[in-house]
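Risk mitigation, structural track. In case the binding assays with LLP fail to produce interpretable data, a predicted complex structure has been prepared as a fallback.
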Amino acid sequence: MDHFAFRDGILHVEDVPLPTIAEAVGSPVYVYSAATFRRHAQVFRDGLKDVARKHIAYAIKANPNLAVLRLLADEGYGADVVSGGEMARALAAGMPPDGIVFSGVGKTADELARGLDAGIGQFNLELEEEGEVLARIAASKGLRARATIRVNPDVDAGTHAKISTGRKENKFGVPIDQAPDMFDRLSRLPGLDLRGVACHIGSQLSDLAPLEAAYARIGELVAELRRRGHAISRVDLGGGLGVPYKPGDTFPSPADYGAMVASVTRDWDAELMFEPGRVIAGNAGVLLTRVIWVKPGVVNPYVIVDAAMNDLARPALYDAWHDFVAVQPTGERMVANIAGPVCESGDTFAMGRDIDRVESGDLAVFRTAGAYGATMASTYNSRALVPEVLVDGDRFAVVADRIAAETILAAERVPEWLAR
Ligand code: LLP
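Fallback model:
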């Protein structure tokens, strides 16, 4: 459920009509619903009601806007971060360092040191050498780094190849059969407080079976580690639960997921960590755009909108579907291609799609754009960096400015030997 609905024929986000936001902020603009974020946070937590000890670390890569992080911090969420930049955001939003998980296959020594200084609660190690470096830095500071080993359970998540992470040929995690010996060696290092294992097999999963298979393998690993005398107090089960993008698509609910987790992990006797991203943020945002032209085409007309692949990269990158809905639909339909102004044929949001009839100047939204939307935006074609607005009841605020092309230009220099 979300809080995007028509009232008097006009699409609203909570109590705010979208034309009001377009008028105040311009377009394109991402618009988020605070009530939807809060609801998703609650529904995910409620889904895990049968898991006794748990911590939810929102994968902030999905939507790292500071206001969004503050909302989720207020819901008791921690953060899963993958860079020094994300860590700084989570801390700036007031998330307690203890509730922050530092993931990522390429954490630099500098990032590890900054994480230790900040008191990060858990480092998910991706390779043995990273564990050795972390242990050395921690020991030099008189600290013990709390860590897990991320394992690769070699499970096919059945999702798009570019967002699949749990097959043995992927760059992520330690092969699960090598994990016990590595655990033996790393657990001897005084600078490490090795507490358990972690996994994450991919994103936008539409089926619980691969997750269940991965978790079952993790359960066997935990048993093996305990047989070797290791105290395992934590298991990080990652994120990955998908959301429907297309009308009619069905996905396992957080309650289905939680029931599966409770059943697979019932004898684990460990605190479970979760790293949901998309399921919290996806349906909490839309990308509001204005139709520039409806250009006659050979097969179908092209609806050229003012949002482009630099603002929402998912269709170009993953052939992703985002529903396109007119803000003030007339009831008439048309079959059209939807494209942005960027000079690439890949800057196409949909081909031959049955959509609300729109004309030049009309407003429309791409739905389910709250996750992996604004955060993946760029300034390609010297376009402005897309702004973000948060709606909360009848209030709204710009929570990220539009960064104008001129501002970006001002950060560039011509060296003096080329100066005129
Ligand atoms: N934990 C780890 C270690 C991850 O790598 C990810 C996502 C998550 C948690 C959160 O996964 P989620 O619950 O959101 O599925 N840009 C792509 C998605 C990339 C996901 C990367 N890792 C997209 O737009 O579909």
